[in-house]
Amino acid sequence: MNTKGMGSVSLLIATLIATASYSATTIDIGDGIGHRSGEVWAPVILAADTDIAGVNMLIEYDPDFLTFDTVLPQQPPLGGEHLILWNSPEAGKVNIAAYAPGAPSVLRERSGTLLYLVFRIKRDAPEDVTSTEITFAAEVAGSPSLPGSGLSDSFGNSIAHTATSGSVEIEAAATDWQEYR
Questions:
Q1: Which of 31, 49, 154, 157 could form a disulfide with 104 if both were Cys (CB 3.0 to 4.6 A apart)?
Q2: End-to-end CA distance of the chain, in Å?
């Protein structure tokens, strides 16, 4: 048996398998910075290599440090036909869905800031804490089970992607002269 060149073939096959399982589509929670009792915005950023029609996220944060206020959608990439639904079933959790009801409609742009998660940093957050995480929840068991983040195409098919959590940096309180500059 001639085995000359088998190493190259094996390397090619391994490269094809690795490339096939790689997704260039990401959804990330960015970082925010704020003062105790102040408002902070954390961006949710999408970078997709295909058309996206729907987005769902299960977000978790530490309710000892943050209070959730609202979601601020950004246009584009979201179009005026897209609905943003969110609820906070309990402190420390926010569920968000973005989609266009009726006829499937893809996001206007494949990449950009989809929305901002708006939090208030608690006034009584311990002084020794300088940051706290905002994460995509682990998969929620049930029927069907729900991932911490989900992207779908206009046919409702799930799109493979990676998701990265973010954080809020809590700065020391501003002095009077810093606040009024």
A1: 154
A2: 80
**170 part of a folded domain:** no
For every residue of 26-67, DSSP letters joined together read EEEE--EEEETTSEEEEEEEEE-SS---EEEEEEEE-TTTEE
Written as tens digits, the pLDDT of the chain (181 aa) is 555 554 544 443 333 334 344 558 999 999 999 999 999 999 999 999 888 888 999 999 999 999 999 999 988 777 777 889 999 989 999 999 988 877 567 887 888 999 999 999 999 988 888 999 999 998 665 556 667 889 988 888 899 999 999 999 999 865 544 554 4
What does DSSP say about strands 93-99 and 83-90: parallel, antiparallel, or unpaired? antiparallel
CA 70, distance to chain mean position in Å, is 15
CATH number of the domain residue 155 falls in: 2.60.40.680
Total number of domains in the chain: 1
Give the domain range for residue 83: 25-163
What values do phi and psi take at 9, rounded to 5? -65, -45
Specify if 110 maps to a domain: yes
Q: Is residue 174 situated within a structural domain?
A: no
What does each C-alpha distance from 13 to 34, 65, 91 come to in angstroms? Answer: 49, 49, 48
E-assigned strands of 20-165?
A: 26-29, 32-35, 39-47, 54-61, 66-73, 83-90, 93-99, 111-121, 131-136, 149-152, 162-164
